Amino acid sequence: MDIIKRLENWYFSHCDNDWEHSYGVKIGTLDNPGWFVEINLTDTLLEDIPFEAVEFGDSEDRSATWLHCHKKDTVFFGYGSYQMLSTILQKFLDWADANTDTAPWDDTVSRLHAEILQMTEHGTLDTIERLREIYKETYDIPTEHPQKRALLQAFEEVWDKQWDKT
């Protein structure tokens, strides 16, 4: 998969109508000439995962190939010469892919999907209290989980039906 498509997918997997309002990806140019990339990892599975810094070349030499990637607190920083943008993104995405495991939430997602489906099919919408518990459990699932968006959509449909009944 092309590196831009991978970055688009990584970004979109974190957009939950909340995260993208405060965090995200910045890409810009440097005057030596080169690129910078800043990716805020707050509220992602990567925020506490260490990143081993990568550094080579001389950023003061306009004709040199150079790269510097590191993580400080919850932000990934990548800087490189004019031909290194794809390498910076590759370093980030390879690290992100290797350190993002959503499997621990698979059982929770399946259980909540089944409960929501049962509520929808049988019209047995439980109390508002149970719906609030489902909502909280759903939001505890990391944004990276590939099924979270579908689960939230199913929840919203059940929530709307609950209010239509009252």
Number of domains: 2
Q: What separation lies between the terminal Cα atoms?
A: 48 Å
**What is the general shape?**
elongated
SSE sequence, one letter per element: HHEEEEEHHHH
Q: How many DSSP E strands?
A: 5
Helix content: 40-55%
Compute the gyration radius: what is it?
A: 21 Å
Biggest pleated sheet: 5 strands, antiparallel
Q: Could you tell me the strand content as a percent range?
A: 15-25%
The secondary-structure class comes to alpha+beta
Calculate the mean pLDDT score and round it: 86
- The stretches of 5 or more residues where confidence is low (pLDDT under 50) are none
Put simply, the count of helices is 6
Strand order of the largest sheet: 1-2-5-4-3
Can you give keywords for this protein?
166 residues, alpha+beta, 2 domains, five-stranded antiparallel beta sheet, 6 helices, 17% strand
Written description of the protein model:
The protein folds into two domains: 3-98, no CATH class; 103-165, no CATH class. The longest helix has 18 residues, at 148-165. By secondary structure, the chain is an alpha+beta fold. The chain starts with a helix and ends with a helix. It has helices at residues 3-14, 19-22, 85-98, 106-122, 128-140, 148-165, and strands at 25-30, 34-40, 54-56, 67-72, 75-81. It has six helices and five strands; from the N terminus they run H-H-E-E-E-E-E-H-H-H-H. Strand 4 and strand 5 form a beta hairpin. The mean pLDDT is 86. Helix 1 crosses helix 3 (85-98), helix 4 runs parallel beside helix 6 and helix 5 runs antiparallel to helix 6 (148-165). A five-stranded antiparallel β-sheet has the order 1-2-5-4-3, with helices on one face. The protein is elongated and about 70 Å long.
